[in-house]
Amino acid sequence: MQEKSVSMIVVAAGKGARAGGRIPKQYQTIAGKTILRHTLDALIRSYPFTEIVCVINPEDNHLYEKSVEGLSLSPAVKGGNTRQESSFNGLKALTAKCDLVMIHDAARPFVSDNLIKELIDSKASATIPGISVTDTVKRADPQMNIIETVNREGLYSVQTPQAFDYHMLLKAHQSLTTASFTDDSMIMETIGEGVTIIEGDEANFKVTHPEDFKKAEMTIMNRLADI
Ligand code: CTP
Ligand code: MG
């Protein structure tokens, strides 16, 4: 069977405010490589993507250039103020025709070959990885006082990469008038397109808070110990 043409957009234009540090989290180093480089190396290993485009904050260009040394990527694209704008800019910058487009967070360095394969093999026009919520879920007010316990049945916490029919996702982005969507599947939902969830991967966590750097380092050490 002929391989599908799949393009990959890596959104890396965030400031990493919750993670803290002198530089945005995607440029911080764990086990000798920046998080962005871990992510890109994992993606490049997993599939012969038609093109890979990183969306970045131009202020971080020097950090970006150092991170991607030696890789052959499409030119980086300028990010926006929100993730949604960054992902839209990435979509508009794709130059080659593709059957499928994937959007991935730069801050998820442990994306697996298997997850990429399952997303590409999906028959749906929008497919995302999700993990069913096992903890009891509460809604609280800003003072941390509980308002209610949320029924967790059917609740998933979702990850990236997310895979879409390219034209459908572009159309969905073009139809929006607000810019606060935190993932691309939400954008598809707003135009009434169905989105399918496949089993996500606990290891594919997003580096978000300061303690996640340690967790990421431990993950790498454990993998090295397994070889
Ligand atoms: N992102 C982006 N453009 C933005 C905001 C986020 O490309 N304007 C990217 C981030 O670089 C990250 C991914 O979207 O790879 C997921 O976002 P998040 O984890 O929220 O990262 P940040 O926005 O950088 O972190 P924070 O919200 O803590 O500031
Ligand atoms: Mg953010």
TrEMBL record:
Annotated positions for site Transition state stabilizer: 18, 25
Spans annotated as 2-C-methyl-D-erythritol 4-phosphate cytidylyltransferase: 1-227
Keywords: Isoprene biosynthesis, Lyase, Metal-binding, Multifunctional enzyme, Nucleotidyltransferase, Transferase
Site (Positions MEP for the nucleophilic attack): 152, 206
Cofactor names: a divalent metal cation
Coiled-coil region list: none
E.C. code: 2.7.7.60, 4.6.1.12
Gene Ontology biological process terms in this record: isopentenyl diphosphate biosynthetic process, methylerythritol 4-phosphate pathway; terpenoid biosynthetic process
One Gene Ontology molecular-function label: 2-C-methyl-D-erythritol 4-phosphate cytidylyltransferase activity
Reactions accelerated catalytically: 2-C-methyl-D-erythritol 4-phosphate + CTP + H(+) = 4-CDP-2-C-methyl-D-erythritol + diphosphate; 4-CDP-2-C-methyl-D-erythritol 2-phosphate = 2-C-methyl-D-erythritol 2,4-cyclic diphosphate + CMP
Pathway it works in: Isoprenoid biosynthesis; isopentenyl diphosphate biosynthesis via DXP pathway; isopentenyl diphosphate from 1-deoxy-D-xylulose 5-phosphate: step 2/6; Isoprenoid biosynthesis; isopentenyl diphosphate biosynthesis via DXP pathway; isopentenyl diphosphate from 1-deoxy-D-xylulose 5-phosphate: step 4/6
Physiological role: Bifunctional enzyme that catalyzes the formation of 4-diphosphocytidyl-2-C-methyl-D-erythritol from CTP and 2-C-methyl-D-erythritol 4-phosphate (MEP) (IspD), and catalyzes the conversion of 4-diphosphocytidyl-2-C-methyl-D-erythritol 2-phosphate (CDP-ME2P) to 2-C-methyl-D-erythritol 2,4-cyclodiphosphate (ME-CPP) with a corresponding release of cytidine 5-monophosphate (CMP) (IspF).
Family: In the N-terminal section; belongs to the IspD/TarI cytidylyltransferase family. IspD subfamily.
Record-given protein name: Bifunctional enzyme IspD/IspF
Native source species: Temperatibacter marinus
